[in-house]
Amino acid sequence: MWNSECMELIREAHNFNMHNHHYLYSPRTVPRRAFNGKRQRLVRFYSNWQKTRCEYADCIDGDSVQWKLLRGESQDINKVIATPSGFIDLHDPSTCFTYTIHRQQLIKVPSEIELNFNGQYIFFNERIFAFNGDNFRASGTEAASVCSFRLDNRTPKWKSKAPMLHALNTFSVVQFNNKIYVFAGCDADGLSTVTQEFDPGLGEWRLRSPMPGVCEYRAAVVALNDKIFVVGGKERSLFSYEPAKDTWTVLSSTQHAYEYCSATAWKGKILVMGTEHAEEYDVEGDTWIPMDKLVPDDIYCYNVDNFILRTFLI
């Protein structure tokens, strides 16, 4: 009989075979950064007046950061979905490309599947999952619905999954081990503290302990070691959640309030980038320091889905 730890090792080995590195956010591998001499690369997506730019930096020390274009000139991208090895670009509702960071390779996915959900997308185990948001106004909507399809399928089709237990809008999703978690957002009564856990293997949801506070606007979520961190909002919130124990901890507030922000793990710490400010969180010391040098100079955040900060091993 295979236990859960053995199955996780098998999944990690499969991912390494497919992508040439481990899951960056696996609690078993972070912050182990010296695997095969690989180094971390910081990548940011943002929108300016000339569409969407993708830039990278291998070092953020010093007074300024030397950002370089990763994908050439600005791209006309509708939505970006992060994967363990790069990104999926949705240029329109039926055209998508995969981009691999360490190979700098762009490949068109032979798919005519419609990708026009009003919610959040996440890539997990070679599948794209779509979590549909609810505007709490229109009747007959597919509120809280969840669908997925295999990206490597020549003729992919959306397959319906069990809907979220609690309908939300402007929520955040994150993968942790073999589960997907939904945090924050708004429900019909206002700001939500509900925590929802989805098991893609079983296709089942369960409610977990609620967040200890709210996070207005869309929160940034990032997994590091054995915890998930939820950060952002005008409340300057920072909470950590430990799935194994189903417990929450309130941590030091951010230095700035954020309407929209993105977060990523970087060398054992957490970077948070907003449209005007950025900062770095020391997990061990529970302290913040300014990192405004991460913020693009010419940002125009009309598309929140393309405002992304991520770390990759190369």
From TrEMBL:
<dbReference type="Pfam" id="PF01344">
    <property type="entry name" value="Kelch_1"/>
</dbReference>
<dbReference type="InterPro" id="IPR006652">
    <property type="entry name" value="Kelch_1"/>
</dbReference>
<keyword id="KW-0677">Repeat</keyword>
<protein>
    <recommendedName>
        <fullName>BACK domain-containing protein</fullName>
    </recommendedName>
</protein>
<keyword id="KW-0880">Kelch repeat</keyword>
<dbReference type="InterPro" id="IPR015915">
    <property type="entry name" value="Kelch-typ_b-propeller"/>
</dbReference>
